[in-house]
Every structure is written in structure tokens, then in C-alpha cells.
Q: What sequence folds into this?
């Protein structure tokens, strides 16, 4: 073997140590050397032209790696690629990279320019559990784009929703579709998502929800609808969600709570109606919320509350009524929740006085916030002093 060829061989062997894929080549070379040990030893004494074996194997491996290296990694634009987690956030991608590792569990493609998603783009990702494609300028997703993702449990997507898009996502438990400019949720939108537990539809433009939009979502426990254009509580749609525990309708122009608006939500524990321009609550407005423990009614236009407002909330523990226009609180308003209510926030209203009878039923109250109200100067004589709580902000 000539001196030049010997130097080249040493260089290639050095690359074998640095590149893990070269070990494949070395294994082949070692096997060949075992079979032809005698011939290879003789090559040392012969001319290089009659002993091309070792050099040829390594040279072929080198060329193969040059051509196939991209197939084992991620595009250079991606910030992270470990084989289990891939992060290509804000990378300027126009499509889903073809060479992502098929063993990937978490994929972040947020903030790109991916306009279309086809069935081939996500084919073969049998272990994929979480896919983030929010803020990626997606215009269209093929209805069968997610067919071959059997273990997907978290999906964050921004796009138009073609009918049947989620029908194959039987394992998805968390679906985030916020900031999608959705205006209408038609019937069967989430058909097939039998495992779904959390649905985030916040900050869209939803003004109408079909009565059957949430059909088959028996396991849904969290529903976020804040920041939309709903003119009223979508009673018929949400009434199907028998296992719902947390509901947010904040920042919608609802205006009023109609009778039986939450009928069927017997397991609901948290309800937020913050900043919904609420002026009144009809009789039996909170009917059926037997297990509700926290109610948020902050930043609304309520002017008065009375014994009919919260009649059925017998297990309520936290009630936030701050930043309304409440000037009148009738006797018996808090009577039914007297043994359960611990925190009552009435700050930033128009209250000038509170009669002792109003607060007397609240035997379990630990925190009462009534600061920033135009109190009558004799208020400290009228308020009961046996609650052991602070009536004014420190």
C-alpha cells in the first residue's frame, strides 16, 4: 500500500471514530478482514493495485454518509433534535421536514410558514405524543393528515377545520385551537375524539355553537371558550358534557344568564364569567350547578343581587363579584351558601352599606374584600365584627 493511500486510510478511520454511522462500515470491514485475513496480510508486501479491499469499503461508506446524513438528523434550521424531541420553532419552514426522526415523541413546529399539511407529512410517526403547529400560517389540513398518529395525545393547531379532521384522533386528550379565527362550530366538529379531556377554543371569533358540536365528548373535563363573540351561554351544546369540571366563558358579550343556562353540568366545579357585560341573572340561572365551588363574575355590570341570584349554589366556596356596579345586596342573597362560602370579593363596587342580616349566614367565611366602595361614614358601626376578617384593603 502506498504512503498516500495509507494517509487517506488513517483519515477515514479517524472519521469513523467521530461519526457514529461509520461503525456500520467498520463492522463490515472487520467481517471481511476475518474472512480474508491471510490475503490482507499478504497485501502489505504487495502493490496497492492488488489490494483495494479495505480502502474501497471505507471509501464507499464515506460516500454513502455524504448522501444520507440528512436522513438521520433534522434540518439545520431546527434548534433541537434528540431523536425523541424536535424543536423547529420560528425556523421559516414552508413545509413539515421530511427527515424528522420517526422515533420522535414531541415535535414543535410553531411560528413557521407551513401552508398545507398532507397525509404524507406525518406518516410513520407511530410514537408521536405531542404536536405543536400553532402560529404556522396553515391554510389547509387534509382530513386524513393525522390518520397514522396512534399515540398522539396533545395537539396545538391553528387552521381551518375541515369536517372529519379529528375523526381518527382517538387517543388525543388535549386539543388547543386558540387564535384560529373560528366563527362557527358545526355539528360533529370533534366527532371521534372519545378520549378528549381538555379543549381550548379561546380567542377565536366564535359566535355560534351547534347543539351537536360537542357530541361524543363524554370525557371532556376542561372547556375554554373565553375571548369569543358568544351572545349567550350555549346551553344545549355544553349541556351534553356530563363530566365537565371547568368552564370559562369570560370575555364574551353574553349580557345575561338565562334560566337553566348550565343545566346538565352537575360535575362543574369552576365557572368563569369574567367581563361578559353581565347585567342580570335570571331565576334558576345557575340551576344544576350543585358541585360548583368557584364562581368568577368580576368586571361586569351587575347593579344588584338578591336571594334569587345564587339560590342553588349550596357548595360554593369562592365568589368573586369585584368590579361590578353593585349598590344593593338583598337579605338572603348568601343564605344557601352560608355554610360553604369561604372567600367573598365585593371590592370596587358602589356599595355604601351592608346590613348585618346580609352577612350573618356566612358562618364559614374567612376572607371578605369590600374595599374601594363609597362607604357611608358610619359603616364601621353597621358592619358585624364577629367574622374575624378584614373589611378594607391593607
A:
Amino acid at each position: 500500500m502506498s504512503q498516500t493511500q495509507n494517509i487517506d486510510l488513517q483519515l477515514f478511520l479517524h472519521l469513523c471514530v467521530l461519526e457514529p454511522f461509520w461503525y456500520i462500515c467498520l463492522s463490515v470491514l472487520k467481517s471481511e478482514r476475518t474472512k480474508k485475513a491471510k490475503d490482507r496480510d499478504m497485501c502489505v508486501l504487495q502493490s496497492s493495485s492488488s489490494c483495494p479491499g479495505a480502502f474501497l469499503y471505507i471509501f464507499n461508506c464515506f460516500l454513502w454518509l455524504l448522501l444520507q446524513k440528512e436522513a438521520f438528523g433534522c434540518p439545520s434550521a431546527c434548534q433541537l433534535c434528540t431523536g425523541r424531541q424536535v424543536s423547529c420553532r420560528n425556523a421559516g419552514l414552508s413545509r413539515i421536514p421530511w427527515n424528522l426522526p420517526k422515533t420522535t415523541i414531541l415535535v414543535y413546529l410553531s411560528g413557521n410558514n407551513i401552508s398545507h399539511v398532507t397525509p404524507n407529512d406525518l406518516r410513520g410517526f407511530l410514537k408521536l405524543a405531542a404536536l405543536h403547529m400553532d402560529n404556522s400560517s396553515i391554510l389547509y389540513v387534509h382530513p386524513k393528515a393525522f390518520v397514522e398518529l396512534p399515540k398522539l395525545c396533545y395537539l396545538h393547531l391553528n387552521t381551518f377545520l375541515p369536517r372529519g379532521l379529528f375523526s381518527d384522533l382517538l387517543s388525543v386528550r388535549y386539543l388547543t385551537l386558540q387564535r384560529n379565527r373560528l366563527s362557527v362550530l358545526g355539528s360533529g366538529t370533534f366527532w371521534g375524539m372519545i378520549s378528549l379531556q381538555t379543549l381550548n377554543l379561546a380567542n377565536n371569533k366564535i359566535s355560534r355553537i351547534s347543539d351537536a358540536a360537542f357530541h361524543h365528548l363524554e370525557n371532556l373535563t376542561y372547556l375554554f371558550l373565553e375571548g369569543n363573540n358568544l351572545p349567550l351561554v350555549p346551553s344545549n351544546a355544553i349541556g351534553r358534557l356530563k363530566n365537565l369540571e371547568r368552564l370559562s366563558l369570560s370575555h364574551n358579550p353574553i349580557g345575561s344568564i338565562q334560566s337553566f343556562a348550565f343545566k346538565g353540568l352537575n360535575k362543574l366545579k369552576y365557572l368563569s364569567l369574567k367581563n361578559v357585560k353581565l347585567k342580570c341573572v335570571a331565576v334558576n340561572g345557575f340551576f344544576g350547578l350543585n358541585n360548583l365551588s368557584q364562581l368568577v363574575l368580576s368586571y361586569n355590570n351587575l347593579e344588584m343581587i338578591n336571594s334569587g341570584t345564587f339560590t342553588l349554589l349550596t357548595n360554593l366556596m369562592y365568589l368573586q363579584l369585584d368590579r361590578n356596579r353593585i349598590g344593593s345586596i338583598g337579605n338572603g342573597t348568601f343564605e344557601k351558601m352560608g355554610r360553604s362560602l369561604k372567600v367573598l370579593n365585593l371590592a370596587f363596587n358602589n356599595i355604601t352599606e351592608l346590613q348585618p342580616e346580609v352577612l350573618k349566614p356566612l358562618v364559614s367565611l374567612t376572607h371578605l374584600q369590600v374595599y374601594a366602595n363609597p362607604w357611608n361614614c358610619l359603616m364601621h358601626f353597621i358592619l358585624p365584627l364577629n367574622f374575624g376578617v378584614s373589611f378594607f384593603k391593607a
